[in-house]
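ugh ok so i messed up the first submission bc i forgot one of the chains. this is the corrected input, ALL of the components this time, i swear. 381 residues overall. if the numbers dont match what u have on ur side tell me asap before i send this to the collaborators (the ones from the other lab, u know who)
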Amino acid sequence: MLALVFCLGDERYALECSQVVEVAPLVPLRKLAQAPPYVAGVFVYRGKPVPVLDLCQMTLGRPCRMLMSTRVILVKYPAPSVGAPPGGRPAGEQQVLGLLAERVTETTQCEPAAFAPAGVKADAAPYLGGLAPDGQGLMQSVQLEKLLPEDVRALLFQATD
Amino acid sequence: MSEAVRSSDCWQTVGLSGDGSCEKLKEVVHCRNCETFAAAGRRLLDRPPPEGYLDVWTRVLAEEKSAQHGNELAVLVFRLGQEWLALPARLLKQVTHPRAPHRIPHHSGAVAGMANVDGELHLCVSLQALLKIERPEAERQSDLAQRRLIVVGKEGDDWVFAVDEVWRVVSLDPSALQTPPVTLAKSLENYMRGVVELDGRRVAVLDEELLFGALKRSIR
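and heres the new structure output, hopefully the right one now
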């Protein structure tokens, strides 16, 4: 598979490219009140507001640096087929979600089977998957479907009607 | 990998811009093929964005994408007499210099004769006769240098026709095609998909099925 490689701090992470819609520069975001700190804000993407999560804040507890290599990865966020929040969108419908990460400048070819379990499963970061070696060390896969807890998902993807 | 190769500007010291002593050059030939050079290039992005850059991108990202990707129609725009015409560019095989076709006895109208293109004989047709486009006498003598012969292929058949000028290939949105104005020649209207304005030219986009269908019937 082709994977988009990015950094959170010094460590490298990989996201499967088939889930990525577009990679955009870090545009000014509108802050959302009462949202968790890792919700960086909202911006208008192709005529619709799209929420953006700061993966650095989520994983490291500090916001992404304001650099040109810090970019918004627009992904197809898979809405879970079961347990859709009441009043939320229909199950299975795909949403666009922005992920803020550092050094989003590379893609790499890798085998999905190359990602071996990390051995340590952090309960606070269930979205971090297996580890795979590449030329410069280990990169860890990011699993979109485990990214958001239910309550945050309900907050970000409320029914618009 | 030696320490020099790891340094941030090794291409200036041991690379091609330096003394060329880098061991890796034997393998990658040029610094631009080297992973170290590529990584240094990506590090250029680790700096604050220039002023105005993000404002432009905010606007670009907020807009809906105008033309759906893969939906565009690429057409070759050419001129016959006073009329600008266009045909889908995927049919195009060649644009070449004009030559006089060899006439075929007992054929006239849409059949102009046979033309030799790269050693192959092709049937040369006259779009001008089929579409009944008029050319003023003065026009026939001028602009000789701009005349071209166009070779198109459609379902295994090659067709050659002469035009007065070839402009260029244009990518357009099929939904932007307008219905032809009433002032347009009726014979031309029969063979077209629609009209589009390009740089002040009113271009008639021809329908390949109708056009080549009519040409096929005319040579029987």
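quick check: The CA atoms of residues 57 and 63 of chain A lie 5 Å apart. that seems consistent at least. Chain A has one domain: 2-156.
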